[in-house]
Amino acid sequence: MTTLGLILLIVGALVAVVEAHTPTHGIAGGLGVAVMAIGAVLAISGLGAGVILGLAGGLVLAGAGGAYVGLTVKHAAGVRRRRVRGGAEGLLGQVGVVRSWADTGGSVSLQGGVWRATRSPGVDDDPPTELHSGDKVVVERLTGLTLSVRPAEEWELI
Fold first, then answer.
1. Is 127 left (phi over 0), alpha (psi -120 to 50) or beta?
2. H or E segment at 101?
3. Is 111 exposed, middle or buried (CB count within 10 Å of its CB: 0-12, 13-18, 19+)?
4. Minimal CA–CA distance to 141: which of 118, 114, 157, 113?
5. CA pair distance 25, 19, nearest whole angstrom
6. Distance, CA of 123 to CA of 37 (rounded, Å)
7. 3-state secondary structure of 97
8. CATH 2.60.60.30 is held by the domain 87-157
9. Which residues contact 38 (CB under 8 A, 6 or more apart)?
10. More confidently predicted of 127 and 20
11. 88 by DSSP, 3-state: which?
12. Phi-psi region of 111 (alpha: psi -120 to 50; beta: other; left: phi over 0)
């Protein structure tokens, strides 16, 4: 019994470690904790400590492991709901500064880089406000390496 309990403890720990490296959403971690708890019951009772003490040790191990897996899954779920920070999606909604502007487009400084930019279609100002060097603009779309921008409003600059 003791040998089987120790083997189950090791296998359960390995399955719980697999949870940290694969996206099983807590399934592998929960199974690993359950196998470790059964292994603890078998190992403790096999050493002659009694079934009640083995069950108590298994429950303590299952409670601590279950709380850890639950906390890990909760934090992982929170990360999935975060807004994208990098790449093309991360540029949308960012505020940049116009470096130069002509009638149809110009260049905008954004996050340490200089981007080619055009005016976003569908801007509802009649006549369109002219953009000048130093004006703040908001990125609405990215097409290839060209930003579609519109003038930033006061509330976006805070």
1. beta
2. strand 95-101
3. exposed
4. 118
5. 8
6. 63
7. strand
8. no
9. 5, 8, 12, 58
10. 20
11. helix
12. left
Could you tell me which residues are beta bridge partners of residue 100?
107
Question: Which residue type occupies 7?
Answer: I
**Residues near 108 by Cβ (< 8 Å), separated by ≥ 6?**
96, 97, 98, 99, 114, 115, 117, 137, 147, 149
Q: What pLDDT, on a 0 to 100 scale, did the predictor assign at position 128?
A: 67
| Tokens found for residue 89 | 């999606």
Q: What is the pLDDT of residues 94-108, one digit of tens each?
A: 999 999 999 889 999
Q: How many helices (H) and strands (E) does the chain have?
A: 4, 5
Instruction: Say how far apart CA 146 and CA 157 lie, in whole Å.
Output: 22
What are the tens digits of pLDDT across the range 6-46? 898 889 888 888 877 887 878 888 888 889 888 888 888 88
Residues in contact with 62: Cβ distance below 8 Å, sequence separation at least 6, in sequence order: 33, 34, 36, 37
Q: Quick check: helix, strand or coil at residue 115?
A: strand
